[in-house]
Amino acid sequence: MARYSVVERVDRGEPVIELVDDGAKCTAVIVPGIGATCNRFAWEYQGAMLELISSAPDYETLRRTPILYGNPVLFPFPNRIRDGVFEFAGKKVSLPINEPERHTAIHGLVLNRPWEVAAKGAGDDDGAWVTLRFVSGAFPEVEAAYPFPFEAHYTYRLQDGALVNEFTAKNTGSEPMPMGFGVHPWFPAPLSAKGRRSECRVKAPVTGVWRLDERLLPTGEIVPPAPSRDLAKGVPLADEEYDDVYTGLNQHGPSEVVYTDPGTGVEIVIRSDSAFREFVIYAPLFRDIVCLEPYTCVTDAFNLEARGVDAGMIVLEPGQSWTGTIVYAPRPISA
């Protein structure tokens, strides 16, 4: 029997693609029609399925609030843009305000729209995988809001017990295109009823934290984190609430963020390549989750760059492509 397989099926009326790794006893369920999100990543641990990503209770809820579950894809910008407005190369861009309480545009333009299945496959060398495609020209409202034509490909690959996220963006227009990319995975905190949120820990090789104003927008200043929130040393979530933007993630090479749940006996390693410099942790007190989000750029990067702040904005020339990879790898703490 083959170790890896890809299953196309309809789940409660929604077409999904399930990636299966029988060797590692894990599975991932991808929803192409709702932002290309992974709505389930589960791993059999000590005889029971451990849900590693917080799934939406149903697809209607996921479609209505896609940013609150699964693994939202944040492109062509992650996090917030002040007042939904920026200028680039003499062009003023006005984005839809989808966070009215802070009057910002937030988390890009692709997480609530359908992607098409471009290819899929399974094999010992490549694992179980699916590639999804998004072409901005198929969505007039996207190109009206973001006048930089692009094509994006997102590959989910389940291999050796890890979920690999491979993202490629291509500038298909005739002018330079600004961009940023990130993911927003929702990990349960704790990972099971055996754990406690307060004891869960996060360690990340970051070097500083961006100072934020009352709208959670960076002022442009990077400061040392408070000792209780110094992720470089590793800290418990305790009773702290997080919505913080750290930097320096790959300053010393490809990073490894570790989220540990000692009660469950499991940790999730989040690896990202050298393209990712910023790192957001979101852990509210009203919900038992922690979001650990590698970004290529900081919040409001386009406006910060216009002020002369190095915010990580990527610029693609016409025809140029960019690729980044992020991996979620669960393992027993003793490993």
Describe the protein:
By secondary structure, the protein is mainly beta. The chain has one domain: Beta-galactosidase, Chain A, domain 5. It is built from three helices and 28 strands. It has helices at 59-64, 140-145, 301-306, and strands spanning 4-11, 14-21, 26-31, 37-45, 48-51, 73-74, 80-82, 85-88, 91-94, 104-106, 116-123, 127-135, 150-159, 162-171, 177-179, 182-183, 186-188, 201-203, 208-212, 218-223, 235-236, 242-247, 255-261, 266-272, 278-283, 289-295, 314-316, 321-332. Strands 11-12-13-14-28-24-23-18-21 form a nine-stranded antiparallel β-sheet, with no helix packed on it. Strand 23 and strand 24 (266-272) form a beta hairpin. The two termini are 28 Å apart. The mean pLDDT is 97.
Question: Which residues form runs of ≥5 with pLDDT under 50?
Answer: none
CATH architecture: Distorted Sandwich
Helix fraction, binned, reads under 10%
What's the total helix number?
3
Q: What spatial order of strands do you see in the largest sheet?
A: 11-12-13-14-28-24-23-18-21
- Strand percentage, roughly? over 45%
Give the integer mean of the pLDDT values: 97
Bulk shape: globular
**Structural class designation:** mainly beta
Within the CATH hierarchy, at the fold level, what is the topology?
Answer: Beta-galactosidase, Chain A, domain 5
User: Compute the gyration radius: what is it?
Assistant: 19 Å
Number of domains: 1
Number of strands: 28
Report the top-level CATH class: Mainly Beta
For the sheet with most strands, the description reads:
9 strands, antiparallel
Terminal Cα span:
28 Å
